[in-house]
Amino acid sequence: MAPRTYRPEALNTSKGLFVLACLLAVVAMAPIAWIVGLSLKDNKALMLGTEAVFALPYTLANYVNLIGSSQVFGWFFNSLVVAVGETVGVLVLSSLAGYAFGRLEFPFRRTLFVLVLFGLAVPEQAVIIARHQMFNWLGWHNTHLGLIVPGLTSAFGVFLMTQFFRAIPKEIDEAALLDNTPPFRLFWRVMLPLTLPAQATLGIFTFLHAWNDYWWPLISATKKEMFTLTVGIASSQTNFAQSEGLGFLSAQAVFASLPVVIVYILFQRHIVTAVSGGAVK
């Protein structure tokens, strides 16, 4: 075997890409560092100028005041219920629909799948009036159910799970049928575990969307005790004169982002696996 030769130009290119990646990471992290810095500063110091964020001292007073505010924890609970409920519902419905479209044969399968994909092209704003009237008739406004149900119709989730189920080799179905495996057990015990990377990816995207959603909770939740974190923090910002200052609002933003960061850290391995196409080996 001939010895491997190293080209200086290739090494320089790698170093350049590494430096570029580091610069992009710094740019991406700058807003996060800024908001964390604001949350650690005294509100009186920030009233003199936000450049005080670069100078000592720092304080945890804003987080102490946040913990003492029961209203924020109520908003946090609402966001958690909505995000978890919507994520679970989307995973269940998208997995079932994806398995049907990807592995089963039934009349008008292609036509129905195309109709589902049309949902990707319809903006939420186009149906907001009809949805508001329907939920008002059902009495679902200012309820957790009313905040969860609209997010369960995920055309992207159905498309993603359909593609992953189609990628599973047909031999697995044939082997299971030879063992007289019932259809639901085939789906639950054989097929579904193979799509774990896709489910993790879809679950994270759904959780992020539900947690950060502002449009529908702003319309449906009119009582303050039913606000989600996004609507609650926004209401504090619009009433800034009665709030406790910029540092306290920044502490609220950091507090609201923690679940998102934790979820991503726990499941980032599955996202990488799904994106790299390693769902089915």
UniProtKB/TrEMBL annotation:
Name of a matching Pfam family: BPD_transp_1
Superkingdom classification of source: Bacteria
Membrane topology category: Multi-pass membrane protein
Keyword Transmembrane among record annotations: yes
Location relative to the cell: Cell inner membrane; Cell membrane
Family matches, as PANTHER family: ABC TRANSPORTER PERMEASE PROTEIN MG189-RELATED-RELATED, SN-GLYCEROL-3-PHOSPHATE TRANSPORT SYSTEM PERMEASE PROTEIN UGPE
Function: Part of the ABC transporter complex UgpBAEC involved in sn-glycerol-3-phosphate (G3P) import. Probably responsible for the translocation of the substrate across the membrane.
Record-given protein name: sn-glycerol-3-phosphate transport system permease protein UgpE
